[in-house]
């Protein structure tokens, strides 16, 4: 039985990109259909490692981005693991990069057009042929509650890089791949995909990069 879709919450859990309705134990009356989950997992489980490799290949850093990616990781470690987009942009400018802060505006006018607000860094002039999107915590955007994550999805998520430096086109490719796996994971556990987890809504976080 498919679980009724909860309304999109107005805020995230503090310090996390998980929505409250996606946290394990949030709804004590709900029990996932383990039979459905195990059956679908059994049919597709052999593809897990192959798909994880494909996703890792899709996000393999380009030659022009390797140095920038290393600098992002160094700055993140120096900050104790947590670094806001604004602080990262400032730190990168201090290293000589042409870095700026970009902001995508959110909109909740309709579930089908749900747009998510987000701040991220854009770096230009790295010889990559165009601007690069820099995300210090890219994997967090695809984290879902344990009630909804199949073993297959957990392996796919592990292949998603924690830090991302990529052109918009490459980011879009990755988002589409992971969101397709996320949709399958929700369905395999007997749940509907929340509208804020659709590929268009997730991509809306970086809409400012193409404007």
TrEMBL record:
InterPro entries (UniProt xref): PDDEXK-like (IPR006502)
Descriptive protein name: Uncharacterized protein
Superkingdom, taxonomy of origin: Eukaryota
